[in-house]
Structures are given as C-alpha cells and as structure tokens.
Amino acid sequence: MPKTKKRTKLSDYFPDIDEWPNEWMGVDEDLEIGRGLLGFFTPFIQLLIDEGYAKKTIDTHGSNLNILGGEIIERLNGTDEDNRKLSPKDLILHYVDEEGGPFLSFWDPHDITEYRKLMAYAATCRKFLKFMTRENAGTSAAP
C-alpha cells in the first residue's frame, strides 16, 4: 500500500486560502480588511494542523472560517458600514461571541441539513473565539 503524504501545512488543506479575501470582496476597501481577517484565521487553522486534528475536522473549520470572513465583509457592505473603522481583530470580537458567529441569513434553520451546517459553523466560531481571546492571541497576526 502506498504511503500518503502527511499534510502539515495550511496550503496542503486550503491551496486557495490567499484568494479568500478576493472572494469576500464587495468593494476595493474590503480587500485589506479581508487580508486582516485571514491573518487571524491562518494561525488558528495551522494550530489545528499542528495539534493533529483529523483532515475532515480541519476542512470543516477552515470552510466555516471562510464563511465567517465572507459574512463579516457582507455585513460591512450592508447595515454595518460604521464597523469598517474597527480593526480586523475587533471585527472578529464584535461578530463572534460565546454562542457562535453572526447568524447566516442564507441558511434555513428549519432544513435539518442546513441546521447541522449552521451548528458546525457556530462550533467553529466558538472554538475560534477561544483561540482569539487566549493570552497573547493574535500577536503575530495582521493588525
């Protein structure tokens, strides 16, 4: 049986991760904000990899962070325009709390499949919040 290559880098899981801010962008100024958000997402995902989490778990958390980044940017382009003055870290702390992330209006909680995805998204957000609020969190991430 051939040995499979052990995944140890972020790019092994998400080769397009650097493109996420471009995908989230609605207006030009979103790109810098998106890159700032990504600066916090990447060390979190790398920590999961380093701690030996299963591939499926890492994929799920990464995909949910991609959704979170898109949702934050979408809100900044909608009713939350005033929050653009917040730093990426403060945006995360504004939108993510102990219950999870911002509710995703495009998911129907009455659909059991979508409800499960919403619960997984909320779990990712809670885990990410713990990462963000631990001592010295995000000191190496983008401002």
Rough outline: globular
Binned, the helix content reads: 55-70%
- The count of β-strands is 0
Specify the structural class. mainly alpha
Overall pLDDT = 89
End-to-end Cα distance, whole Å, is: 46 Å
SSE run: HHHHHH
Largest sheet report: none
Strand portion, in percent?
Answer: under 5%
> How would you classify the quaternary structure?
single chain
Total discrete domains: 1
| Low-confidence spans | 139-143
Tally of individual helices: 6
Radius of gyration: 15 Å
Overview of this protein structure:
The chain is an all-alpha fold and 143 residues long. It has one domain (22-133). The chain has helices spanning 10-13, 20-24, 29-50, 55-76, 88-95, 112-133. Helix 3 runs antiparallel to helix 4 (55-76) and helix 4 (55-76) packs across helix 6 (112-133). The longest helix has 22 residues, at 29-50. The chain is globular and about 45 Å long.
Question: What is the fold's blueprint, element by element?
Answer:
Layout: H1 10-13, H2 20-24, H3 29-50, H4 55-76, H5 88-95, H6 112-133
Helix pairs in contact: 3-4, 3-5, 4-6
What's this model, at a glance?
With 143 residues, this protein is mainly alpha-helical.
Short key terms for the protein model shown above:
globular, 58% helix, 143 residues
